[in-house]
Amino acid sequence: MYSEKVMDHFNNPRNVGEIENPSGVGTVGNAKCGDIMRMYFDIDEQGVIRDVKFKTFGCGAAVATSSMATELVKGKTIKEALEVTNKAVMEALDGLPPVKVHCSLLAEEAIHAALWDYAQKNHIVIEGLKEPVNDISEKEEDEEY
Amino acid sequence: MKKLIYLDNAATTQVSEEVLNEMLPFFRETYSNPSAVYSFAGESKKAVDLARKQAAGLIGANTEEIYFTGGGSESDNWALKAAAEAYSSKGKHIITSKIEHHAILHTCEYLKKQGYEVTYLDVDEEGKISLAELKAAIRPDTILISVMMANNEIGTIEPIAEIGKIAHENGVLFHTDAVQAYGHIPINVDDMNIDMLSASGHKFNGPKGIGILYIRKGVKIRSFIHGGAQERNRRAGTSNVPGIVGFGKAAQIAGERMETRTVKEIMLRDHLIDRVLSEIPYTRLNGHRTDRLPNNVNFCFRFVEGESLLILLDQLGVCASSGSACTSGSLDPSHVLLAIGLPHEIAHGSLRITLSEETTMEDIDFVADELKKIVERLRGMSPLYEDFVKEQK
Description:
The complex is a heterodimer.
Chain A: H1 4-11, E1 24-30, E2 35-43, E3 49-57, H2 60-73, H3 78-82, H4 86-92, H5 101-121, H6 136-144
Antiparallel strand pairs in A: 1-2, 2-3
Chain B: E1 5-6, H1 17-23, H2 25-28, H3 39-57, E2 66-69, H4 72-86, E3 93-97, H5 102-113, E4 117-121, H6 131-137, E5 142-146, H7 160-169, E6 173-177, E7 196-200, E8 211-215, H8 241-279, E9 283-285, E10 296-301, H9 306-314, E11 318-319, H10 325-328, H11 335-339, H12 344-347, E12 350-354, H13 361-380, H14 383-392
């Protein structure tokens, strides 16, 4: 059901882990639907993503898309990272089964969430970046009130 | 090649060699249509009669109360739709449970659109319905109670004899989906007050595409497939002779070996449950600890997702299944796990392992050893586990 590349990234996920004191961290998805992705970015003064780590709770495609997304943004500028769309992630993985396309959307969203956190911390505005809507903490608050 | 460890016997089973050998002559040698007049048809007819006797024998039914169908889903559809229609002059209320197979639940949804009312009984955290709730749900217009004998996901065995008694005391028809139970646990339709029972051949080492509906004599239920006199005019279509023969043989073997087989399965099942619960933290067993199918094990591993578990097990040659959303094709995890009260994120981490007669202690220990590593690995990359560990500190 999955491409060889998806299986490779699932079996040998790149950049799994955490970054202590990250420049930005974003968590998207929710446990209810079964996928949660968290991305940690280390961004230098030039706005280059020096390091990136992820943790994911989810299916094979969720792990593989997070892994591929981290590879695609590592070493890139913020502007370049914003261009990493879910389509780019899917193409890099040689495609996903239709029911798993939402995983790639989540990966794109995770990149945006980490960048949003970075922008908030540094009181800057990143052109073209919207506030991520798929943040898990927001979801939980939404449900409470 | 790595060894295949097949632990998804609730999904389907391997046709046993004895069953296959019994079936084979009916493809090329005795291929006659049992409904025909010539003597060549006699052999097929005899084989079908014997199979019906074997199928009936396993559940204490009369031969003429067994109707061969295309499988468990067809039997469930037939039982519900035909009974609903036949008894609609008495009323239009049906009682079932929240943890039925979709062959029942979706049929009930269909009947609701036809103007029937359906009460879905809750289950407790171990998956059992409440007899008090059942009694309270019965109304003057209740025509049918359908509760499964054993659950396909969590293996819990329902109090069928008690349900049957309540149904009969109230003059209500009782159907049970016994697809997972038939051939695995003792069943007696009289002792258990069962009016209709569905079973499927491929769940107990018989072939696929063949099932039965037991219909107690006197129950007025109409034909489901029209167009021929087969199955006492109630289910048209040329008899699937090899399938029927296979069903009968598998039923006979299942009956003969049930005791020795289930003793072994229960021993292995309990060994797996004990090892996993004691060696892998934050794990729960789903379903009743003892009132469960001899071959069923179902766990939830917190902080991990089921499909990932399945892929990693598959790479070791282990076939199992999960009730996670990713394996259901929707965003919701299994309705059974939600009905026993599990929150979504825990239900997503479920793993069902179902044994067979062939399963060995070595297989079970291998799976327990590997599960430990797999769960640890997946937790290592789980943001939920990361948060949990931080909270603990």
